[in-house]
Amino acid sequence: LKAWESLAIILYLVIVGAGVGPLFTREGPSGEVDLARVGQVVAVVVGAPLMVLGMFRYLGRRPALQELPEGRSLWSIGFYRVAATVKTLRTEFRTLGCFYLGYAFWESANTAVVSLTGAYVLEQLGMDAGDFIIIALLFVLCAIPGAITSIKIADKEWLSLKASVAGALVLSSVCLCCVSAFVYSSGTGPYVFAIVPFLGFANGWVYPAQRNLLVALIPGGCEAEMMGFFQFSAMSLSWAPSLVFLAMGETTGEYREAILVCPIFWLGGLAVLYFCVDVDKGLEEVEATLDKRFKSGAA
Asked: How far is it, in rounded angstroms, from Cα 41 to Cα 137?
């Protein structure tokens, strides 16, 4: 799925940046606004039919797998289930709960890194939209070998599950710290092209690594519930890096320090992972449930 997502992003950037975009844009800042408008149009024209296809072909009416508890409604059941899952994590699977906490921090930075890097490139380094498209392409392309390397690391057991996630987070943090330290003006801007491939590689590395660790810690018999909470954790702090980045930029008048918001969230998640996630203990917590996982898979 990550490979298909990367391919879709690459096609989008090529179509907007090198295909349709130049036909409708002007020179200067107005051209960047035009390019953003063209990008929105392309996203809607391509995305809307796919959304309709998904809604009516793959998400049609089907029998409910579970009944709503008495006194609950579709409006409240989501909050109830989240609270119930949190209670289960606190009482039975604390290691997995700590993983979710750390994941919420580092995934918020993973989600925001492309958009914040784009703002940094345009505002701090004074580059144009064409430069950003090249940077985005480098990022996405280098994420593919990062993901392949992550899978290879797991297969060959070169690193433990925990160490693999930690390595990706450290590499991501080092990359943006180098950007803040050495790439902060129009004169130093071209050096960003040397750093972005490593940042993309780290981004591709972390996704298989974190899922491998998650799967090891998920108890049998409640995989759907825990994967749902995994997605919930990913979104819970997704707003925070962008908010802090913009607030710092508006306060200081530049984005050199603001770009460090991503390393702060990465390292915050890494601290939780390192100090609170004992993988051996987590495996012991779920050991008694693994027979349920096997039966579920066999079914």
From this structure: 20
Tens-place pLDDT, residues 9-33: 767 767 766 666 565 556 655 666 6
Task: Give the Cα separation of 234 and 112 in Å (integer).
Answer: 11
Single-letter amino acid, residue 235? M
Residue length, the chain?
299
What are the tokens at 243? 């908010």
pLDDT for 297 equals 42
Q: Which of 104, 172, 106, 185 is nearest to 139 (CA)?
A: 172
| Residue pLDDT, tens place only, 150-195 | 999 999 999 999 999 999 999 999 999 999 999 999 999 999 999 9
- 143, 270 Cβ separation under 8 angstroms: no
**CB neighbourhood size of 85 (10 A):** 19
Distance CA 116, CA 76 (A): 34
Query: How far from chain centre, in Å, is Cα 153?
Result: 20
Q: How far apart are CA 121 and CA 183, in angstroms?
A: 10
